[in-house]
Amino acid sequence: MLGWLLAAFVTAAVGAVASVDAPSFYAQLSKPSWAPPAWVFGPVWTVLYGLMGIAAWLVWRSPGPKRAALTLFGAQLVANALWSWLFFAWHRGALAAVEILLLLALIVAMIMAFWHVSRAAALLMVPYLLWVGFASLLTWAVWRSNPTVL
């Protein structure tokens, strides 16, 4: 399990490098009234990365074919980390808005693949899917409200 948690939290660390100035950058952006305060993101993502690692471990230890499911897990980790770079480091709002849709598609595909291997693992990914769905809407709204910054 430690290896899968490490994979998830290494992804978090890669995203964190891109997000080193995120609190001050996020504070200067025009945001919709439903945008959460900056302090919410850290705890939420910590829980979600933990759930990702546990879910991947459940799939990995399950009998039967699992290569496709774990490949999708890896692909969505890459897309997850890339979003932070696009949005916070490179200030590419349009690309971040498109890329997060790719991330959503990868998460859906991963959940479907996980379901065939471990239903518990698939269910552990539902909060992640919901959060990234919310983050997609927020990315779009923030990008559209800050065209000169993003």
Shape: elongated
Strand content: under 5%
Largest sheet: none
The residue fraction in helices comes out at over 70%
Radius of gyration: 16 Å
On the 0 to 100 scale, the average pLDDT is 97
Question: Could you give a quick summary of the protein structure above?
Answer:
With 150 residues, this protein is mainly alpha-helical. The chain is 79% helix and 0% strand. It is built from 7 helices and no strands.
Protein architecture, described:
The protein has 150 residues and is mainly α. 79% of the residues lie in helices and 0% in strands. The protein is built from seven helices and no strands. The chain has helices spanning 2-18, 22-28, 41-61, 67-89, 93-117, 119-124, 126-145. Helix 4 runs antiparallel to helix 5 and helix 5 (93-117) packs antiparallel against helix 7 (126-145). The radius of gyration is 16 Å and the shape is elongated. The mean pLDDT is 97.
Break the fold down into its secondary structure elements and pairings.
Blueprint lengths: L1 H17 L3 H7 L12 H21 L5 H23 L3 H25 L1 H6 L1 H20 L5
Helix pairs in contact: 1-3, 1-4, 4-5, 5-7
Features of the shown structure:
single chain; 150 residues; mainly alpha; 7 helices; 0% strand; elongated
